[in-house]
Amino acid sequence: MRGQSIIETEKLTKRYGTQTAVNELDLQIREGEVFGFLGPNGAGKTTTLLMFLGLTEPTSGKVNVCGFDPKREGLRVKERVGYLPENVGFYEDMDARENLQYVARLNRIPDEISAPRIDTWLKEVGLYEEAKKMVGIYSKGMRQRLGIAEVMIKEPKLIFLDEPTIGLDPDGTNRMLDLIHSLSREKNITVFLSSHLLDQVQRICDRVGIMIKGNLVAVGPIQELAREKLGIDKERYTLEEIYMKYFKEA
Amino acid sequence: MHGILTIFRKELADQFSSTRFLLISALIVMVGVIIASMVAMGIQEETRGLAKPTLIFLLLFTSTGKLFSFIQFIGFFGPLVGIILGFDSINRERVSRTLSKLVAQPIYRDSIINAKFLTGVVTISIVLVAIVLIISGLGIRLVGVVPGWEEVWRLAIYLIASILYISFWLGISILFSVVFRSTATSALASLALWIFFSFFVSLGAGVLSDAVAPISQSSSGIDPEALLKHERVQRTISLFSPMTLYSDATSTILDPMRKTTRSLILMGPLERLSLTRFQSPLPLLQSITIVTPHLVSLVAITFLCFGICYLVFMRQEIRTV
Q: What are phi and psi of A93, to 5 degrees?
């Protein structure tokens, strides 16, 4: 299974007026891996995600997600890909199950198929007991976990997570990271994770890409980048050191 | 189609369980019932011992009674209903961050805006049909006459015109909810436009017609040519207001005694004579002929408004921030 690419971009560029948000991005994501997409705020991470989903049109360049061009076959891509936006929102006056059911219906999943799936995922993310409560009273951590369940309802091959741990307490962060890890290992789902919380990315990602001011300055396994930037003799490294080195150079 | 239906079902359920929907419909039903029963009792008093005149049933809706008539009430309050139903339809989803999630689902983006508009139109239709039926029931009970086919047809046309008119305001408020990020701003903008059209267009029409075609006071009195021109300019300008379009159309369709939407001053002498001499109601088809331009204009502005709304929404960037 591994080795086949699920996302491919070629000179993908997005400009807003004179400002270049994403500059000639060449990137390949392989099936089944956990890819960490790093960069400071405003580096173009979210814009890249939106282009992968066909929600924003690229100015130039090619992009291919799950074998489809998101620009022309956006629906095909969205059927196969789950997207958890940063600070995901829910319909506050509906309970967790109703929220998930609505999304399932939008994905053309019949109720009789979605109902057991919703139960499974509510248990998986640890919200089964709270499923009858209105989402309006959910804590931040519960919302993020509900977001994961919502993304998984359509059984995607690939999920995009935009800052999934931002604003979570340490316990919530750990649960979230474990959940993402298990998705990749047990369900063989490709995870594309955008974040600027480096220690967390280091814990779960197979490969990382570092984006600064719209340019992808480095991409590869963390060890490799460490060897390249910090010297091979260094035993203990953190992603932060590597990242800061790239950041200063850029 | 699948996406539209799913969103439509959810939105309609939301609408019917919302407090604002309950308040609006309670208000309309309350006012409608009060007006209708007052008018009905008045008719009962006046026609006691007399043969009932033709088309008396429509008087329930057009007679002003002590306060105002039902059609005046809808003409004034209808836009508010449209605005209340639509002013936060898109930006509420934006604020609660559900919009970016919604567009990431495998549905066409236009299903969102289409479903929202459709929900509003269906809600409006349900409320209006319900209140017209309630008033009719009350009328049958109190006045004791059953509406004939012609009256039913006239009421049906009135309903269609009213739904179109309120949908126009729904379209305006959805447009503002697409353009403005804050729900308060879009509500205020829609209200401002409503006030502008309901009060200032007619005022402005007066001022403009004074400027374009002033009525000069000469020694021989007022020049009739100038007066005619003044009146024509004023009518043309005030027709730019959807209020005027709507109230002209509905009062003509529900009152068969009205044979023109023009004011008395613009009629020729023979026309005026025939109006006073022959007090017979206009046949249904003739009434329809008179109001067709108004109805077509109502359809046009409603679709134009929705079209702009659709375009703006489709071209908008969906960002999480």
A: -95, 15
Q: In angstroms, what CA-CA distances link A31 with A66, A159, A193, B37?
A: 9, 11, 14, 72
- On whether residue B98 sits in a domain, the answer given is yes
Q: Looking at beta carbons, which residues of chain A come within 8 Å of B107? A: 75, 106
How many domains are contained in chain B? 1
Strands A34-38 and A190-195: parallel
Closest-approach residue (CA) in chain B for A163: B320
Domain spans of chain A, in order of start? 5-86+160-249
> Does the residue B270 lie in any domain?
yes
The pTM of the full predicted model, rounded to 2 decimals, is 0.87
Backbone angles phi, psi at B21, to 5 degrees: -65, -45
Evaluate whether residue B321 is within a structural domain: no
CB contact under 8 A, A106 and B108: no
The Cα-based distances of B118 to A109, B47, B156 in angstroms read 23, 43, 20
β pairing state of A19-30 and A5-16: antiparallel
**Residue B317 phi, psi (nearest 5):** -75, 135
pLDDT in tens, chain B (321 residues): 788 999 999 999 999 999 999 999 999 999 999 988 888 888 888 777 776 666 778 888 888 777 788 888 998 889 999 999 999 999 999 988 899 889 999 999 899 999 999 999 999 999 999 999 999 998 888 887 788 888 899 999 999 999 999 999 999 999 999 999 899 999 999 999 999 988 888 788 888 888 877 776 666 666 777 778 888 888 888 888 888 889 888 888 888 776 666 555 556 666 666 666 556 777 888 888 888 899 999 999 999 999 999 999 988 877 643
Distance CA B124, CA B165 (A): 10
Q: Which of B238, B246, B230, B228 is nearest to B293 (CA)?
A: B246
Start-end of H helices in A23-169: 45-52, 74-80, 96-106, 111-124, 140-152
Place of tokens 């009421």: B155
Nearest Cα to B255, choosing from B54, B50, B39, B29? B54
**pLDDT tens for each residue of A158-198:** 999 998 888 788 888 888 898 888 888 888 899 999 988 88
How far apart are alpha carbons A145 and B317 in whole angstroms?
Answer: 27
CB contacts of A107 in chain B (<8 Å) are 105-106
**In this predicted complex, what is the ipTM?**
0.86
Q: Which of A55, A92, A108 sits opposite B104 (nearest CB)?
A: A55
Radius of gyration of chain B (CA): 22
Taking CB atoms and an 8 Å cut-off, how many pairs form between chains A and B?
64
Q: What residues of chain B lie within 8 A of the CB of A106, using their CB?
A: 3, 6-7, 102, 105-107
In words, the CATH class of domain A5-86+160-249 is alpha beta
